[in-house]
Design brief:
It is a single chain. The protein is an alpha/beta fold. The chain folds into two domains: 292 residues, Mur-like, catalytic domain (UDP-N-acetylmuramoyl-L-alanine:D-glutamate ligase), CATH 3.40.1190; 130 residues, Mur ligase, C-terminal domain (Protein-Tyrosine Phosphatase, Chain A). The chain contains 15 helices and 17 strands. The protein has an eight-stranded mixed sheet with strand order 4-3-2-5-1-6-7-8, sandwiched between helices. A six-stranded mixed sheet has the order 12-13-17-14-15-16, with helices on both faces. It has a three-stranded antiparallel sheet with strand order 9-10-11. The longest helix has 21 residues. The protein is globular.
Length: 435
């Protein structure tokens, strides 16, 4: 058994070698051994390609503002591992990680000896979160973010009050399929009878799959731009302002502190989810609490401004849709500033499309790599770019340090790409800026 946090964390990360193992049988086996803690949870399930983490944060912040103790399970982390299992936005203590690992570790050893094989890292952390929110630190409500896909994701053992599917993008195609329709089928796998669905999926093929699944299960579905509307959107210095409307309610001049028009969509889904929790499940939330929750919501690594002088932004734009949103925001907010961008990504992404979009906006584009099993090589990224001022550096710390030292007042420095990369970059840049 484990005595220290470092030992526990090392064991969890050692399970990365098990790779990605879609399927629910190992999760079901562990939950059976734990006497089904998932049955004790009151929870919400949030899936989609982009915007899951932000939507989790908006809904958590609204619930917290209304006085509910709210657990969240998210991935990946940005600054510390414990973020993945949080209560009211606060990562759980190190000693609770040790306790959870000492519960799950013996089960992992036993499972390893069965025909199912040992659990993956993500399955272990999911089991830890479920047990934590049900047994070790019970909460009023827990919000679970899907890891990959939905149908066979390890979080799909929970029994939620409602599901949110943010959007559909061509990501993880080697696991989920290479069309919007195929990916939508996997995402729709989280929809369960007796729940409600809120979604922003907008591609016709994907929308048909999602809504057909909801009808099949007799689940009421609320669709952005059909049942939920965003009006009067304006970008303001502190974030975004918009009016939210459905068939019964209008909330004018809502404010969020995260940047980007796409964030208004995530916030709109969270507001509808909050209304459903109030009307159908007795979670009492007043308009003022919804407004305060939205405004105070913060999610690291999503167009996060680390410094105004020098102007430094980090953004976990880890797929084509994320890069499109980043480029739109840079053009919208900072049209006159020169944009120096450092980029790194995982090799299993649509790198050519992502890089060609960055080519359009970057006055200087530098490619780097980082220590991660699926990280792209700098040479491969560099070759895909057509930018006239492109560079590559195998040492990302050196590349960032040089940019910070040479940045002028008319320039903006953006570090973007894989969220795993951003999790390493953020503390390093903060340390450099503090010198």
């Amino acid at each position: 058994m484990f005595q220290t946090y470092d030992e526990a964390l090392h064991w969890i990360h050692s399970r990365l070698r098990a790779g990605i193992k879609p399927g629910l049988k190992r999760m079901e086996w562990m939950l059976e051994k734990l006497n089904h803690p998932e049955n004790k949870l009151t929870c919400v399930h949030i899936g989609g390609t982009n915007g899951k983490g932000s939507t989790v944060t908006y809904l958590r912040s609204i619930l917290e503002s209304a006085g509910y103790q709210t657990g969240t399970f998210t991935s990946p982390y940005i600054e510390q591992f414990n973020e993945r299992i949080s209560v009211n936005g606060q990562p759980i203590p190190d000693e609770d990680i040790i306790k959870l690992v000492n519960v799950i570790y013996p089960l992992s050893l036993e499972l390893e000896e069965t025909e199912l094989g040992g659990p993956s890292e993500f399955e272990i952390i999911t089991a830890m979160a479920i047990y934590y929110f049900a047994e070790l630190h019970p909460v009023d409500i827990a919000i679970f973010e899907v890891g990959l896909g939905g149908r066979f994701d390890s979080t799909n053992v929970i029994k939620p009050l409602l599901e949110v599917i943010t959007n559909i993008g061509l990501d993880h195609v080697q696991f989920l399929g290479d069309t919007y329709k195929e990916i939508a089928f996997e995402k729709a796998g989280i929809i369960k009878k007796g729940t409600s669905l809120v979604t922003a999926v907008d591609q016709p093929d994907a929308q048909d799959v999602i809504l057909s699944r909801a009808r099949e299960l007799e689940v009421p579905a609320f669709l952005l731009d059909r049942d939920i509307h965003i009006q009067d959107h304006v970008s303001v210095p502190t974030g975004e302002s918009f009016t939210w409307k459905d068939a019964e309610t209008t909330l004018a001049n809502l404010e969020i502190s995260m940047f980007g028009k796409h964030q208004t969509k995530n916030a709109a889904l969270a507001v509808k989810a909050a209304h459903i929790l109030g009307k159908k499940h007795d979670f009492n939330m007043e308009e003022g609490q919804i407004r305060e929750g939205l405004k105070s919501a913060y999610w690291p690594g999503r167009f996060e401004v680390l410094s105004q002088e020098p102007f430094v932004v980090i953004d976990g734009a880890h797929n084509e849709e994320g890069v499109n949103a980043l480029v739109d925001e840079l053009n919208h907010r900072y049209p006159s500033k020169k944009k120096n961008i450092i980029f790194s990504a995982l090799a299993d992404k649509s790198l050519d499309k992502m890089i060609h979009k960055l080519d359009e906006v970057a006055d200087k584009l530098t490619f780097v790599t980082f220590e991660y099993p699926r990280a792209s090589k700098v040479e491969d990224l560099y070759q895909l770019s057509k930018n006239k001022n492109k560079h590559h550096n195998a040492d990302w710390k050196q590349a960032i340090t040089e940019e910070l030292q040479s940045l002028n007042s008319d320039e903006i420095f953006v570090v973007t790409g894989s969220l795993y990369f951003i999790s390493e970059v953020k503390p390093f840049i903060k340390g450099q800026l503090a010198k």
